[in-house]
Design brief:
The protein is mainly α. The protein is built from three helices and no strands. This is Hydrogen voltage-gated channel 1.
């Protein structure tokens, strides 16, 4: 009789492990299906014309601000005013905006890599 109890313990333990593994795999399946659903949604949004035009507008604005910064620096240098506080403040602000645009482009790249995967 004592041997029957000893043999039952591993069976109960293995049943508990199996139920933990099955609940883990069910959770993993739910996360995987949720991730696939979000990737499909992201692919749809990232391949839209609206996103393309938005990125094109950001690139155009970034280039325009870069050219404006160059123009301000060249004009200030020609007029011997490059040390003026307003020139330095405007130039620094335009550079900071340019860095912000660069971060937006990096985020867009990461979003595309997650949505479409590396090729």
């Amino acid at each position: 009789m004592a041997s029957a109890i000893v043999e039952a313990e591993p069976l109960i333990g293995s049943l508990h492990q199996q139920s933990e593994q099955s609940s883990f795999s069910e959770t993993q399946v739910q996360l995987t299906s949720s991730f696939r659903r979000h990737r499909a949604d992201a692919r749809r949004k990232l391949s839209s014309r609206t996103k393309d035009y938005f990125i094109l507008a950001l690139v155009t604005l970034d280039v325009a601000l870069l050219l404006l910064n160059i123009l301000i620096k060249l004009t200030a240098c020609e007029m011997h005013q490059r040390k003026e506080p307003w020139v330095q403040a405007v130039s620094q602000t335009l550079q900071d905006i340019g860095v912000g645009f660069s971060w937006l482009f990096v985020l867009e790249l990461v979003a595309c890599l997650v949505a479409f995967g590396p090729k």
